[in-house]
Amino acid sequence: MEPIKIGIIGHGFMGHEHEKMLSDFPGIRLMGFSDRDPSQLADVRPGLKQYQSNEELINDPEVDVVLIAANNNQHRDLVVQAARAGKDIICEKPVAMRLQQLDEMEAVCRENNVRFTVHHQRRFDPDFRTAKAVYDSGTLGDVYTIKSSLYGFNGNMHDWHVFISEGGGMLYDWGVHLLDQILWMLPGVKLKTVYADIRNVINFEVDDYFKILMRFENGITAEVELGTYYLADKVQDKWFERHWFVGGNKGTAYVDGFEPVGKIVRTSHLLENVSGQRTMTAAGPTRSFGPAPDGTILTESLPAVDTCHENYFANYVRVWHGQEEFLVKIQETRRVLRLMDAVRESGRTGKSVDFE
Ligand SMILES: NC(=O)c1ccc[n+]([C@@H]2O[C@H](COP(=O)([O-])OP(=O)(O)OC[C@H]3O[C@@H](n4cnc5c(N)ncnc54)[C@H](O)[C@@H]3O)[C@@H](O)[C@H]2O)c1
């Protein structure tokens, strides 16, 4: 079968990541790159084209699909340009900076009958898939809380990410992934209200910390927290901390790290009326919850998940050959953008916002 021929706009960080992944990917032939800064093309791999302009790439009759890996504020114009040339499009996240831009992008894609999806490959992250597998299994009983947190140490905002006009800030950067994961974990569940605390801890223009609380119709409150400026004296290889915590009335899951380690602690039945006991602390005596009766607390391993980011493009190839639907649908990315608007409104007003 003919491979899908992909041309990529933007040979920065993500362009290089795509180059690594797609240079030898089953069912795909990477054609080459364009970049508005020609020096960025200097290390394009031998055998790939270095297009002199975006127009040259978009109008190359050999290119089937344009993958847009340029700064966030460029997505709208580049999607419109590629759609008008009749090319299918994969756009990096966040799909757009505002809903109105997405309306325009979708309209042009519809008019030109081109397929349009977004690179939300973090739906395949092992930590997320592990938390999702535990949730889906029902082993925790009625789940009431899901926490997803990501901490970066000693400040990691840089380059265009510190400018609003370029689409900078952590909500656009990681926030869009973290919110997409939560919404995708709870398919078909209405999100009723949103409350957000958004901060500029050390960055003048853009957000670099947020805590978002989402109250869903099924009784779950999800919390997403991201910080870039948690100070640590020994970071070395540990530049990030990633955690999931999922709590239900029959169990609790602890999922820690991008390559997750952790456990499920659960009971065979609801623990009711466990009597309290006197406990001595440095601050004096207190009454703590008593130990559960013997044999009622079980510790289990986290489920093994088979997942990797390659699965995103494997899905793309199967869609191309009519075997399945896009994993990432534009209406899902629209819901995430709407949620980000609600998050910003709540952050601005300090009040919770009704959502769905
Ligand atoms: N899916 C992910 O996990 C993930 C991770 C990182 C970045 N991204 C996304 O990828 C995109 C690029 O981010 P990055 O970190 O690679 O940035 P980057 O600054 O490292 O690279 C962007 C490149 O695009 C080029 N560029 C900008 N505007 C252009 C235009 N109009 N035409 C041609 N080239 C243009 C720049 O010169 C630069 O080389 C962003 O949308 C970002 O959100 C996604």
Comma- or semicolon-separated keywords:
356 residues; alpha/beta; Rossmann fold; Dihydrodipicolinate Reductase, domain 2; 9-stranded mixed β-sheet; 6-stranded parallel β-sheet; 17 strands; elongated; binds nicotinamide-adenine-dinucleotide
How are the elements arranged and paired?
Layout: E1 4-9, H1 13-22, E2 28-34, E3 49-50, H2 54-58, E4 65-68, H3 75-84, E5 88-92, H4 99-111, E6 116-119, H5 126-137, E7 143-153, H6 170-185, E8 191-199, E9 209-216, E10 221-230, E11 240-248, E12 251-256, E13 261-267, E14 277-281, E15 284-288, E16 297-300, H7 310-320, H8 330-349, E17 353-354
Parallel strand pairs: 1-2, 1-4, 2-3, 4-5, 5-6, 7-10
Antiparallel strand pairs: 7-11, 8-9, 8-17, 9-10, 11-12, 12-13, 13-16, 14-15
Helix pairs in contact: 3-4, 6-8
Nicotinamide-adenine-dinucleotide (NAD) binds next to helix 1.
Polypeptide structure, described:
It contains 8 helices and 17 strands. The chain is elongated, with a radius of gyration of 23 Å. It is 27% helix and 29% strand. Helix 6 (170-185) crosses helix 8 (330-349). The protein has a 9-stranded mixed sheet. Strands 3-2-1-4-5-6 form a 6-stranded parallel sheet, sandwiched between helices. It has a two-stranded antiparallel sheet with strand order 14-15. The mean pLDDT is 96. The longest helix has 20 residues, at 330-349. Strand 4, helix 3 and strand 5 form a beta-alpha-beta unit. It has 356 residues and is an alpha/beta fold. The chain has 2 domains: 4-119, NAD(P)-binding Rossmann-like Domain (Rossmann fold), CATH 3.40.50.720; 123-308 and 337-354, 2-Layer Sandwich (Dihydrodipicolinate Reductase, domain 2). Bound molecules: nicotinamide-adenine-dinucleotide (NAD). The site of nicotinamide-adenine-dinucleotide has 24 residues, from helix 1.
